[in-house]
Design goal:
Blueprint (H helix, E strand, L loop, with lengths): L1 H18 L4 E2 L1 E4 L8 E9 L13 E6 L7 E4 L3 E7 L8 E6 L6 E10 L2 E12 L7 H5 L2 E4 L2 E7 L8 E5 L4
Antiparallel strand pairs: 1-6, 2-3, 3-4, 4-5, 6-7, 7-8, 8-9, 10-11, 11-12
């Protein structure tokens, strides 16, 4: 009986962790339909690559799938991905999602931001590059890359003319 109670307590703890609103990672939650209900977005490898893509091989392919079938998957292509729930950047009642993606080769990652518009995922911010110097960027810093300030949306970009790679705040022109 004690063993059953311990498993029940562990189950409650785990289910509590799952229901928290996770903002970055391979699996995130968000109000992507604008109905107040959290939907889970998950990175799924849909095709296994073979060999080195730079040397005539084929890369892995990924897409983002959602726990609600009303949302179509986002085809993300190659390579490793971290998802970011950006909140409601464009104030349309739905939360936006960004894909932080590794390059096929090298250390310059990209961020592509999507919003659900008329039932389809549309880029609302032009994809921008993040040179990382092959250093990992932590999830907290990724969460701060795109943000809303007053009525404008901004993102941080590294100043490549500066040896320290100082971050510059860039205003977004919505697509």
């Amino acid at each position: 009986m004690k063993l059953v109670i311990i498993f029940l307590k562990i189950g409650v703890l785990i289910s509590g962790q799952v229901s928290e609103n996770k903002k970055t990672g391979n699996k995130i939650q968000g109000n992507f339909l604008g109905n107040g209900k959290n939907i889970t977005a998950t990175v799924i490898k849909v095709k296994e690559g073979k060999g080195n893509p730079i040397e005539e091989g084929t890369p892995d392919e990924y897409e983002i799938r959602f726990s609600d079938n009303k949302l179509k998957p986002i085809k993300a292509g190659c390579c490793e991905i971290i998802l970011i729930n950006e909140g409601d950047l464009n104030k349309d009642g739905t939360e936006e999602i960004s894909i932080y993606q590794a390059p096929m080769n090298g250390c310059t990652y990209s961020i592509t931001n999507y919003s659900l518009i008329n039932g389809s995922w549309k880029k609302i911010i032009d994809t921008f590059l993040i040179p990382t110097g092959c250093e990992k960027i932590n999830n907290d810093d990724l969460q701060k890359m795109i943000f809303r300030e007053n009525k404008n949306i901004f993102y941080f970009q590294k100043d490549m003319s500066n040896a320290n790679g100082k971050l510059i705040k860039k205003k977004v022109k919505l697509n």
